[in-house]
Amino acid sequence: MTSLFPRNFGQRYIEVERGEGLYLFGKDGRAYLDAAAGAISANIGYGVQEVAASIHEQTSKLPFAHASYWTAEINERAASLVAELAPGGMNLVWFVNSGSEAMEAAIKMARQYFIEKEGKGTSRSLVIGRQNGYHGSSLGTLAIGGNVVRRRHFLPMLFDQPKIETHYCYRCPYGLEKPSCGIRCAAELEKTIRRIGPQYVAAFVAEPIVGSTVGALVPPDEYWPMVREICSRYDVLLIADEVMTGCGRTGKNFCVDHWGVKPDLIATAKGLAASYYPVGAVIVSDHVGEVFRNGSGVFAHSHTFNGMPAASAAVVAVLEYMKRHGLVENAARMGKLIEMEIAPELQKMPLVGEVRGKGLMWGIELVRDKETRAPFDAAEDAGGKLKALALERGMTLYPGKAMADGVNGDNIMIGPPLTAGEKDVRKIFEILTDSLQSLQKQLKF
Ligand SMILES: Cc1ncc(COP(=O)(O)O)c(C=O)c1O
Predict the structure, then answer these.
(1) pLDDT at 437 (0 to 100)
(2) What is the number of the ligand 1 atom nearest to the C-alpha of 133?
(3) pLDDT value at position 445?
């Protein structure tokens, strides 16, 4: 009998012993190719001894120093490396311990920004999110998200934050097509701000490429410049949730760099210390920082483990490793290979509706009928079956579901460590194709 409260009491978990590169080694004697980098998070692969050594060294010297008293040189270095990666004019970094915490801090920072600027009576408190968005599992972040599955049980506990539709062009919520749609999903942000009244809106939050909820959903190129412009026009803060897309995952330092957009706040985590340490961050625009500096000076939010030196050691070691090995550039190169050679082949399979992504963040949407784009019935659990078939073949995937209509819809994500080379990428997609062929037989195509 185990004392561990598992994620799923009905699942048998493989006991894992160690990791090296792209592989995890189970006690069952098998090597597993981690095509999902854990949760699209183990960005430099496993077993990088210099990172482990940096964390060990810092932990031996000083693991923790409470941020109400202390700063440490390693924290300063971590912050300046993160600021260097970020778009220009975003030079302040607030460290946390996870993606949910980064997003929670970002939305609270947005609210307090208006208190500092307009006084305690400010009415700016709402945060506009999107259907099919995911920003974390805390109650505050679930409230701004639109992931039906993750919100369902907790709905009565969630504050009702406004939502707009996402740029789900494959299933356009307005039944429109590009380019004649005029990017209605972005224009809808302005309508919503006006309907609510801009004086009540503190921020708009979005993932630059939607992660696991829809499966690497890339926006039209016009989308981010448009929402930036709308937010600026109504003095609404733009928060980019780069928890998954940040730190090189999509082939740029941050995903917003694909469109040259500077948000007011960026939340990041996952790849920041590449899963060697639980750490996240809010990257803050100078103009937002100035309002705090010239106001109360105090962000009314904290956690015991904000800015732990041991976490900062992990951030510094990982970001330096990434720079030395050119991993952002590698992600961009691998992304091009997938886009030009691999995705078009995969796209031909009868149950593949759409293949989409950038860098080393790719999503495959599964469909029952390619012509009508009808999803599989949720009861068929196509994504779960595909995950099992890939695992039989020694590979992990990252599945998501219910995005087509809130009940049905299956997608899987491929997001290996950014160290994956051409041979690894080709192997991943070979195993995926083989798994998809088996799934086709299972589901009687
Ligand atoms: C876009 C996005 N935001 C926030 C989170 C929450 O991060 P965490 O699981 O570290 O709390 C995730 C996690 O998957 C994510 O993908």
Answers:
(1) 98
(2) 1
(3) 76
Q: Which atom of ligand 1 is nearest to the CA of 141?
A: 4
- DSSP string for 6-73: -S-TT-PPPPEEEEEBTEEEETTS-EEEETTHHHHT-TT-B--HHHHHHHHHHHHH-S---TTT---H
Give the nearest ligand 1 atom to 242 CA: 1
Asked if residue 295 lies in contact with residue 116, where contact means CB atoms within 8 angstroms, the answer is yes
Closest CA to ligand 1's atom 16: 244
Strand ranges in 60-143 using DSSP code E only, listed in sequence order: 92-96, 126-130
Note the CATH number of domain 16-47+326-442.
3.90.1150.10
Displacement of CA 441 from its chain's centroid (Å): 33
Q: What is the pTM of this model?
A: 0.98
Q: Name the amino acid, one letter, at 106.
A: A
Question: Residue 358 and residue 334: Cα distance in Å, rounded?
Answer: 9
Type of residue at 185? C
Ligand 1: centre distance to CA 272 (Å) = 12
* Test site for ligand 1: of 101, 135, 142, 256, most ligand atoms within 8 A of the Cβ: 135
- Residue 162 CA, ligand 1 centroid: distance in Å: 20
Task: Give start and end residues of each alpha helix (H) in 197-342.
Answer: 223-233, 286-294, 309-324, 327-337
Instruction: Give the model's pLDDT for residue 1.
Output: 78
How many helices and strands (H and E) does the chain possess?
14, 15
Query: 263 C-alpha to center of ligand 1: Å?
Result: 18
The pLDDT of residue 305: 95
- Ligand 1 site: residues with CB under 6 angstroms? 39, 98-100, 103, 134-137, 207, 211-212, 241, 243-244, 269
- Measured by CA distance, the residue closest to atom 5 of ligand 1 is 136
Q: Retrieve residue 238's tokens.
A: 């733009």
For residue 101, the Cα-to-chain-centroid distance in whole angstroms is: 13
Stretches in the chain below the pLDDT threshold 70: none
pLDDT score at 85:
98
Domain boundaries along the sequence of the chain: 16-47+326-442, 52-324
Tokens of 231: 């937010």
Please give the C-alpha separations between residue 222 and each of 22, 128, 215, in angstroms, as whole numbers.
35, 19, 20
Ligand 1 centroid to Cα of residue 103, in Å, is 8
Looking at domain 52-324, its CATH architecture is 3-Layer(aba) Sandwich (3.40)
Atom of ligand 1 nearest to the CA of 210: 1
**Ligand 1, closest atom to CA 278?**
10
